[in-house]
Amino acid sequence: MDMRADLLIVGAGMVGSALALALQNSGLEVLLLDGSPLSVKPFDAQSPFEPRVSALSAASQRILERLGVWEGVVKRRCSPYSDMQVWDGSGTGQIHFSAASVHAQALGHIVENRVVQDALLERLHDCDLGLLANARLEQMRRSGDDWLLTLADGRTLRAPLVIAADGANSAVRRLTGVATREWDYLHHAIVTSVRSSLAHQMTAWQRFTDQGPLAFLPLERDGQQDWCSIVWSTTPTEAERLMALDDQGFCHELERAFEGRLGTVLSADPRLCVPLRQRHAKRYVAEGLALIGDAAHTIHPLAGQGVNLGFLDAAVLAEVLLQAASRGERLADVKVLSRYERRRMPHNLALMAAMEGFERLFQADPLPLRWLRNTGLKVVDQMPEAKALFVRQALGLSGDLPELAKA
Ligand SMILES: Cc1cc2nc3c(=O)[nH]c(=O)nc-3n(C[C@H](O)[C@H](O)[C@H](O)COP(=O)(O)OP(=O)(O)OC[C@H]3O[C@@H](n4cnc5c(N)ncnc54)[C@H](O)[C@@H]3O)c2cc1C
Description:
Distance between the termini: 46 Å
CATH architecture of the largest domain: 3-Layer(bba) Sandwich
Shape: globular
Mean pLDDT: 90
Number of helices: 11
Radius of gyration: 22 Å
Structural class: alpha/beta
Largest sheet: 9 strands, mixed
Bound molecules: flavin-adenine dinucleotide
CATH class of the largest domain: Alpha Beta
Number of domains: 2
């Protein structure tokens, strides 16, 4: 027999899990399913850093605090950063942002994705939300007013409303035929953690090289400040070459590409190479369907914003659904769901466009563009008001914020 719910969330990654928690006291029957086992690993504070990390904004922190998850993040491991240094590797332009400029303690926190995920799962296991592990979605189709979902093991699920939170290669998006606009950045990102001879000073460093941005994001373990997570975006050929180097050769190249700003790169953990692709769903909603997080949009990691946008999607969608439920409206109605799309799509698109423009400007070789970006960086660096505006934006403190993210 089919399992039934008022609302099915497909994908218990960071974004789907946050949405489920935001709906926990709604009176709705929510079922959250994921193809993975959804088990929480015991945390060892001495364990190596996970290669995938996120730069969580203040808005994301607030959402996680209100969902009772932030505590679980802090008790594991997270690294606040108070400053950001950005510079042009082929010029003299540079810019410095600081939390102090807006009287904040931190610009954000660098957190391993596994840590956020486990803190969310721990909370989910503690509440009485329906959680379905090892449940890989394979098919879905309309059946009357419901969606009928078939899992890989043959189980079937039924609900009038399905939320796609199943990541960049969303099965829900594919099975329901939601169109996307997508393009390759023709870049790959190498991610890993490295130890350097100089302390990172709680600063996120970003150097724009001719081949793409290179970020050193500060990590902290036992009060030590000599580890950073790196995201090195470069051409596929160069990425292949860098991936083939032995550890010593890789550390040497990395130190050179980073102009030795943190001294010698002493060691590197195993490397991951991820092809970068920007993707944006043309619609986030349809009758009985909404897309959130990477299922709706993937953005260049240069922004460090991917999961921050996803948490805001989850918080706004929860707000829209809770308001509609309190008014007795039908939640699967596309008119209700469109309220979520209207609030989130312009914000996500604006950020994606800004990142793309930024990326193009820094990839550009013609002399006038190089001059423009060098001069631009220097000029803006002398404009405290403009910088404070940028910092507020990066903290996620401006724009149409959901209640869960408000101060
Ligand atoms: C190199 C790199 C660096 C990044 N750095 C940052 C950063 O600094 N800051 C930041 O905010 N973001 C960053 N991001 C982006 C960030 O990692 C993503 O935005 C985020 O993980 C998306 O979360 P999600 O929950 O939407 O999707 P995912 O994390 O992809 O979760 C999807 C879930 O759906 C499940 N699933 C998938 N298919 C199915 C199916 N058929 N059936 C059932 N379950 C399914 C999966 O098991 C998974 O649990 C980075 C990304 C990359 C590639």
